[in-house]
Amino acid sequence: MTVRIVVADDHQVVRSGYAALLDTQPDFTVVGTACDGAEAIRVCAEESPDVVLMDVRMPGMDGIEATRRLADGPRVLVLTTFDLDEYVYDALRAGAAGFLLKDVTAERLFDAVRVIAAGEALLAPTVTRRLIGEFARQRPAEPAPLVGVLTPRETEVLRLVAEGLSNAEIAARLVVTEETVKTHVSRMLGKLRLRDRTQAVVAAYESGLVVPRSSR
């Protein structure tokens, strides 16, 4: 399957660079580029991409608002220069399926696009650490009622997802098969009415289910 991609960034050199890089992959096709959020929405309406690489800080309509408006459309992979970007949390709440820094390697970017296109979610480790810090500062360490519907195993899986572990890493940690982990993740998302793993990370920290180790 060919992954159709739109690249949105206000810097022309960056847009062209990402587009050229992504087009080197036989399973990727860049179907359009955009210089701001409004143009990204228009291009997506015309081209129906699978994935949008979205810059956060753009003039006019920024990447967060564009992501919010594309919530029922393509999967959005947010790229930013700043690992301490104040908009990380807002972007995830807006519906971004993943978040990476712009200094990511080419191979990591390719993998991220494929993960996002497959319906999974992805967070850079530094972004996960940023979220931990923000939720530690802003959120109470008291689990909300919504997590009470999970089984003990599903709760543990949610904790590990929130720590940024992949299905394979969770399987190794719990000594179960990767398919078993996928089943737990699917059931956990369904019970909490969440779209993907990114929303699960937000829910875990927002509810207080997961807190930084130093706060436990």
List keywords for this structure.
Rossmann fold, 49% helix, six-stranded parallel sheet, alpha/beta, Arc Repressor Mutant, subunit A, single chain
Describe the structure.
About 50% of the residues lie in helices and about 15% in strands. The termini are far apart. It contains 10 helices and 6 strands, in the order βαβαβαβαβαβααααα. Strands 2-1-3-4-5-6 form a 6-stranded parallel beta sheet, with helices on both faces. Helix 2 packs parallel to helix 3. The chain has 2 domains: about 5-125, Response regulator (Rossmann fold, 3-Layer(aba) Sandwich), CATH 3.40.50; about 140-215, Winged helix-like DNA-binding domain superfamily/Winged helix DNA-binding domain (Arc Repressor Mutant, subunit A). With about 220 residues, the protein is an alpha/beta fold.
